[in-house]
Amino acid sequence: MAAGILDRDRFAKCRALMERGATPGERAAGRAAATRVAAAAGLSLADAVALVDARRPEAAPGPAPNRDRPRRPAERTYAWATPRPAPEPVTVEEVQRQKAADAARRKKAAARAQRRPQAADPEWEHWSGEVREAQAARDRDWAQRRPPRAGD
């Protein structure tokens, strides 16, 4: 009856950590956890290991299932597994052609911008004139209040 309530999945995980942990601390923690899982089922650690090993069909030694099957030939690889060919080096002529095309594109864009009418907004001009005048007045006031420097 005790074997029926053993949490086999959890015990298998704890046992794997106990046997194949990377550090001694991990292996000790796995052993302690496996002992707790076995104790919860009313078994000792050795009894739980024996019970799991007895019911496990893959515990029987035998040849690996795919040992006799031939591997994929090297000349028959997947398309994504083949290495990409090296990129063609860029020639000086290609770079010069790209620069010329870029310069022509910029020149055409500048010509289009000049042909486009630049309508001046009278309200904007009036407002910006007022702002400039107010700033100039503030600058003059600041310059008059400023104490003279030794180098002036």
Detailed description of the structure:
This protein starts with 7 loop residues before the first helix and ends in a 7-residue tail after the last helix. It has two domains: 57 residues, no CATH class; 54 residues. The protein is an all-alpha fold and 152 residues long.
Quantity of strands, as a count: 0
Segments where pLDDT lies below 50 for 5+ residues?
Answer: none
* Major sheet: none
Helical residues, percent: 55-70%
Average per-residue pLDDT, rounded, comes to: 84
Q: From N to C, what is the helix and strand string?
A: HHHHH
Globular, elongated, flat, extended or rod-shaped: what is the shape? Answer: elongated
Number of helix segments?
5
Q: Over all CA atoms, what is the radius of gyration?
A: 42 Å
- Measured between the Cα atoms of the first and last residue, the distance is 104 Å
Structural class: mainly alpha
Q: Beta fraction of the residues?
A: under 5%
Q: Kindly give the count of domains.
A: 2
